[in-house]
Amino acid sequence: MVSAATTPFARLVLLGVLCVRAHAFQDWCQAADKAVRSMHWDVDVCKGIDWVGAALSVENRRLVYAEFGQKDSPNTTLILATVHGDEVTPFFVALKLTNWLRDHKKEIGQTRVIVAPLVNPDGFYRPRRTRMNARGVDINRNFKTHDWELLALRTWREKYRQDPRRFPGYTPRSEPETLFQEELIKQFKPQKILAIHSPLNMLDYDGPSEHLTLSQFPKDYRKQCERLKTSLRAKSTGYFPGSLGNYSGRELGIPTLTLELPSADAKQAMRYWLLFQKGIKTMIDFHILESRS
User: Fold this and answer.
1) Contact at 8 Å (CB) between 108 and 60?
2) Which DSSP string do the residues of 64-93 spell out, in sequence order?
3) Rounded CA gap, 116 and 244, in Å?
4) For 157-180, how does the pLDDT look when each residue is reduced to its tens digit (9 = 90+)?
5) Which of 99, 106, 179, 247 is the most buried (most CB within 10 A)?
6) Strands 51-56 and 62-69
7) What pairs with residue 235 in β-bridges?
8) Domains in the chain, ordered, with CATH?
């Protein structure tokens, strides 16, 4: 089941977020189901899942999320997947997670989980899938971080030699997919964020730690973040201008983990779900008690 959201994203009205006819959501389900079947995946796309349409992509595709668990829970995890349209295995893992959350409501307990499984639908639905969105922007380099104006385009030109796959846009926050993620963070105020990517085969941590942002966040809060990092065996590998980890982890102080699946091979998707589901559930259950303010 999918429903139109009149709230919480009033700030996205200028992007064309209005009450949308039901058939638009049927189109979202049908397109996603067709993609799933083409990759021979055994996963439900819409059955028993209350997707909410919160915004529109550049090409007017719905950007959706689903909410599970206790609405007023102080233990909220935001999960973002398929930020890069050519990374298909994260889409499967996110959908399998929604199926698990749907079927194990009692096990969720006092937690809340928000899942946005297809952040970049335009790149995903290209005849030849692309990392970037429909305007050729890498939406994991488009957040307005403090270093964006100084470093984003310079890094792209000098370090990446103007690789189109890593183009951050000419201005930050220029893409609706970026704003969609920002609004999820603002609305749901998650204690933790998990972004699922591929194919670097690692777990990266961005956020308060013993060695970073010491003056910004309380000591007890940093210790909680370190405990999460340690429990998941994550590593800190640095920041990119305009990345989610830089924006939410470093600047907002929300522990942000990036799970890089070993490949984008659709045939391996079920193996990755079986391999990483325990770690994902560990992160969901982990309760950060201290406030970051």
Assistant:
1) no
2) EEEEEE-TT-S-EEEEEE-SSTT--HHHHH
3) 14
4) 999 999 999 999 999 999 999 999
5) 247
6) antiparallel
7) 204
8) 62-285 (3.40.630.10)
